[in-house]
Specification:
single chain; 64 residues; mainly alpha; 1 helix
Length: 64
């Protein structure tokens, strides 16, 4: 009896370069979203202080 060759998918280990690339892309995307969040918050704070300086708003409760 002869052994027949069967085509099997060979299991390979993780590709280090591929893992690094995926990690870098995900990290940059998450960092970009975090940075955009901080820019948005900074814009809100700057608008608040601009309105406060112009006298459009006040942080003191008006007495009646």
């Amino acid at each position: 009896m002869s052994a027949h060759k069967v085509a099997h998918a060979t299991l390979k280990g993780p590709s280090v370069v591929k893992e690094l690339c995926i990690g870098a892309v995900l990290g940059l995307m998450a960092g970009g979203l975090w940075k955009m969040h901080h820019w948005n918050e900074q814009r809100k704070v700057r608008a608040f202080y601009d309105m406060l300086d112009k006298g459009e708003i006040s942080v003191v409760v008006e007495e009646e």
